[in-house]
Amino acid sequence: MGAFLIVEIATFGRIPTNVLNRVFREIEELYSPYIEKCFMGPILELPPRAYNKSRRQYNANTIVEWMFREITGDKVLALTNVDIYVPDKNFVFGLAQYPGRMALVSLKRLDPTFYKAPPDHSLTLERATKESVHELGHIFGLEHCDDKTCVMSFSNSILNVDKKGSAPCEKCREKLQAIFTTWVSR
Questions:
Q1: What is the set of active-site residues?
Q2: Per-residue pLDDT tens over the stretch 148-180
Q3: Which residues are CB-contacts of 83 (< 8 A; sequence separation ≥ 6)?
Q4: What's the CATH code of the domain at 81?
Q5: What's the domain count of the chain?
Q6: E strands, the chain, where?
Q7: Is pTM, for the whole model, over 0.85?
Q8: How far apart are CA 82 and CA 58, in angstroms?
């Protein structure tokens, strides 16, 4: 089966080039042969109504809904530097339509400096890549995985992000293969 998907990477605000390049490369590598390529989409402005003044955070649901209405790409991953949440959680690292077209990842809590640790660009890159691969997995139809080393395992703390691997486990790869085989046969 040949590659057939193109993933657009958009940003809300400026994201460092090294983060974008690493995310591009890892997504293309980990989701090959399904993804033909990634390309840089637009730099977007966050919808003002997504900001919750009392929480000093942005509602991730509102942002993803806005993306769905305003962006026409088939599969879109947006990266941002703002802190995001969903109503029943204090924060989230990312959010995706499951399955769907849109995913969002925040780098805010993936940066060690958020936790008063020294800057560590390598660690930030690793975390951003894991969460980007994770949220795209949801777009493609993968659920959370019980295997804590799988990139699709749920992370409710930065420790969970650091413990999990950067790729889907064998079980999730098999599910992904079945999903894409179904897409191709349609």
A1: 135
A2: 999 999 999 999 999 999 999 999 999 999 998
A3: 56, 57, 58, 91, 106, 108, 109
A4: 3.40.390.10
A5: 1
A6: 5-12, 35-44, 51-52, 57-59, 75-80, 84-85, 94-96, 102-106
A7: yes
A8: 7
